[in-house]
Amino acid sequence: MTTVAALDCGTNSLRLLVAEETDRGMRPLQRELRIVRLGQDVDATGRFADEALERLFAACDEYAGMIERHRVDAVRFCATSAARDVDNRDVFAAGVRQRFGVDPEVISGDDEAGLTYRGATYELGPGRTPPYLVADIGGGSTELVLGDEEGAVRAARSLDIGSVRMTERHLSADPPTAAQVEAATRDVDAALDSVDVPLGAARTLIGVAGTVTTVAAMVLDLPRYDSDRVHHARLPFPAVHEATARLLTMTRQQRVDLPFMHPGRADVIGGGALLLDRLLARVAGTLATPEVVVSEQDVLDGIAASLLR
What we know:
about 300 residues; alpha/beta; 6-stranded mixed sheet; 5-stranded mixed sheet; 13 helices; about 20% strand; globular
């Protein structure tokens, strides 16, 4: 039986999935997430900060031990938005190679979109109306992928807006001021105006990654984070809008104190929620139901599936 390890290195987090092949497809053995904030100041400096690389490599050391214990047959390390933009990528690559024995793949926006779509629609289940629009709101970028029920991608676009970028560009006050929220909203709307994916063709919106799952936990008013309740939850547009408004008026400490909040996400969740809210507002009128379906499966699952196919 084949066992694989998939690593997804984003602007905000480093995630690991160890999975094995089964007759039905893929069975997760271990999932891990560490907030490493690799994209710290990348938008302003164009390079990885030394302390960001230290956080990343510490998480890599931890994951390497886990992978060794599972005796995996293959490892794939994919880096996304932040790693596309930096001058000191060679330091990053050497550190990854030393720990995992593989080179990090700095995947294109199109590749990331395809892997995200594959992961998000994997085991989606009946009762969803295609075409599907998958939205992956990351720290440095947002991927929008439109596709069909049989897994064929129609169109995809990676936008240089994400929870970390929006926070660093606009939402500096604690809590953000109304003027800052308005400026961030204009920035998000301008990015969505530029997208060449036919958003109006979508009949079901599927949201993935930490911003969406955290907003889901807030809408569901969870006493602690519960992936079983979050996975495939359906969030009505008014509930997402209300949760976004609450997050943008809270102080950072109030967000940290939410029982489902990962402390490493608390300072950027407002910017991410605003992205989800503006996207849902744009497509709500054309969806079969004005809501977002939440998936715990995303690009990480797509990376693992690519090793098993």
